Predict the 3D structure of the following.
Amino acid sequence: MAHSPLEQFVIKPIIPLQVAGYDLSFTQSALWMMIGVLATTALMVMGVRNKQLVPGRLQNIPEMLYEFVAGVVNDNLHEEGKKYFPFVFSLFMLVLMGNLLGLVPYSFTYTSHIIVTGALALLVFFMTTLIGIARHGLHFFSIFLPPGLPWVMALLIVPIEIISYLSRPLSLSVRLFANMTAGHTMLKVFAGFSVSLIGISFGAVLGILPVIVNMALLGLETMIAFIQAYVFAILTCIYIKSVIELH
């Protein structure tokens, strides 16, 4: 297990704590989630602390992130999106920080665990459902019965729509978890190739090839980190839109 590519995903307690038979230990996963929140807060606060008409590099980062997410929300929810922007932006930054911090050596990728991505997906699911019920009352449940559908077909379509709706948290969480786990496992495997080649003849020369591949994979994983945060945010917007417009 010491040299397994999957070792990086093992949750280890930093401060062991048992309460009434439950393990409430403070783990490295919790630590890196805190770091993610603190890093996001610091980035936003420091970026806009000395606002300038012509933004500098530090101010550019939070402004670009803000405008990017605002564009996603506006394109999908239009004027309705203003009230949901803080929620979508918070989710985007939490996922993005988890993905990016996981690329730092000796860090921990909390978005590579289904318990984390599942919790975020359930939060989105329950919030969107509550929005729909609060907005439409019992009429919300008409989302499972497409308009104009013959009643004969309802016995088939309604169960399919219900299963599709209930599967949203699963698809939302597994997509992020699977991409982060697969990507980091691949990086670990290729990094191991670089180390193992050093000990053989011409290892220093041959070891350059995996290093180049690792650099390319690291660039790819950085891009995927942004893409997965974007996908999480846009699907959240789509789910909110579906319960607002009931389609």
Q: What stands out?
A: DSSP finds eight helices and four strands in the chain. Strands lie at 13-15, 18-19, 22-23, 26-27.
